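Researcher: Here's my situation. A collaborator sent me these components and asked whether they could plausibly form a single complex. I don't have experimental data yet, so a predicted model of the whole assembly would be a useful starting point for our discussion.
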Amino acid sequence: MARTISFSAALNEAMRLAMRKDEHVILLGEDVAGGATVDHLQDDEAWGGVMGVTKGLVQEFGRERVLDTPIAEAGYIGAAVTAAATGLRPIAELMFNDFIGSCLDEVMNQAAKLRYMFGGKAKVPLTIRTMHGAGFRAAAQHSQSLYALFTHIPGLKVVVPSTPADAKGLLLASIFDDDPVIFFEDKTLYNMKGEVEEGFYTIPFGIADIKRQGDDLTIVAIGKQVHTALKAAAILQERGVEAEVIDPRTLSPLDENTILSSVAKTGRLIVVDEANPRCSVAADISALVADKGFDYLDAPIKRITAPHCPVPFSPALEDLYLPTPEKVLRAAAEIIGDETIVPV
Amino acid sequence: MAVARSQSIVLTKEKAKWMYQKMQEIRQFEDKVHEIFSRGVLPGFVHLYAGEEAVAVGVCAHLTEKDYITSTHRGHGHCIAKECDVNGMMAEIYGKATGLCKGKGGSMHIADVSKGMLGANGIVGGGFPLAVGAGLTAKLKKTGSVAVCFFGDGANNHGTFHEGINLAAIWKLPVIFVAENNGYAESTPFEYASSCRNIADRAAAYNIPGEVVDGKDVIAVYEAAKRAIERARNGEGPTLIECKTYRNYGHFEGDAQTYKSLEEKQKHLQELDAIVKFREYLLVNQLCSEQELAEIEQSVAKAIEKAVEFAENSPFPTEEDLLRDVYVSY
């Protein structure tokens, strides 16, 4: 039975189901329960994460499995790596993906490489949940989208869901995957509502979801930008252009076939990615299509990304930083060669 | 803080022989790697453990396969003391398919998780959080296992030292932090790089026991480790043990060691050698006969020769191994 619940509730439900299913699943991170050892605090009053995503889990599973950590990312993310390698199935919360600077070694040199360096004799079933995304007026150190950084590193899997239903199925798949997974949660999507099936289900990695079908133009969009692409597609439809909107859902592995098949059909590609443009996933997908799908193309590939600057604080500037449906429409007009597409 | 001296303790004959054999294996293994490396046969670079044998052996004498250790770039000694196969180790150092890590890790990443050896590590300070994680598993799964984090004096200034020990202390995890203070981080003296007189002094900041021991005295290390490991197994949390030791070779092979004085080197290599001292101890206390010790030395020499032969005769990995084991599934 599907119900309408929020992105945040879908994630909470996924963790709850995973922890019920397997006693080796633990959750650790800064304030994932909150208020550890405070005498007067009842578990139901505890934060459950700074955004409340893990609220209530400590009530059901106790503080032995929902572990508040000090603000020491290298310490607890590193601990989660070997906790995974020695028999647990941890979900470690890195509050903001921007904090990776404090624990990149543990992710890049330890989690990602143990299996390969040890000749396949280790596995690291670790999920690192982390918040990303601009538009929250959170400024330069709490707003980045750093998934390209992790996609670059062999040994890691990278998941960026765009809807509550995908978030739940992909998080469950992440937790029960035997490789380290970096799971991105856009902080501006937490309150988004959507239909989500009850009970346990997983969504396999490496299978893109075609969020909207169309024959004239392919738009590949990542995370929250799927919704920017869908808004643009709705306006394009009014102007007689049918855009296909593809959500890769996992950036590593990447479903190359779905992207290439779509471009083979449409001949045109726009990639919408709110991360900075250099060495980005947008650049990577563009290179993929230029390399393996050059003959399909009727027009240059367009990338709608953030500019090459940090995320600004001022709302006036942050709104300029992010992709918008209008930016997508302008690119569509250019590659279709029809300037009437751009809204006046 | 006083340096703890070894007192009279009863080692069983069996344990004493095991310890002497492991110390011999480490020394002879490293001397052999030194010799082979100088012939230009080995790929990459190696960091040798010779001189520090008493630390790995004195600690690992208390451990079983269910216990975990994390190691460093200078990890061969820890591997041997944790009962890793020397043929597989040597083949790994040669980059061969029969290596413990199928030739994909090399000297700095030798591991055998089935023996609780969670890997040598190319990142200085990398081991602290990793040992904490193994300790967390032991505590939550109630396995009774402990995790030992071996680290050098260089790592004691790394941020992960603080984060790792603090976490182990607040969660009372069964982790033993064992500093191998050999006096130099690469070529930089400990006294220059560290604001403390002893690494163990830093234990006070975490409200855990800290102890300095003579790292050239395997019995002293054995006793200190025994106390710490019992504490850990009893759920009383971590201990920091600092072993004052010395590396007989350079930071890496090819290091001219200009920062060491001749007197210092002679003193350590001739007068203070841990294996020579332990040999005397075993004879004086009649734990082993001269003949038994000679037999161990000879059998180890044969085993090391065999390991070299095994490594040299083993095949290299092939192209199909390149992409294998990046992921469990992808």
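Model: Some features of this prediction you could bring to your collaborator: Residues 3-255+278-315 of chain B form a domain with the Rossmann fold fold (CATH 3.40.50.970). Chain B has eleven helices and eight strands.
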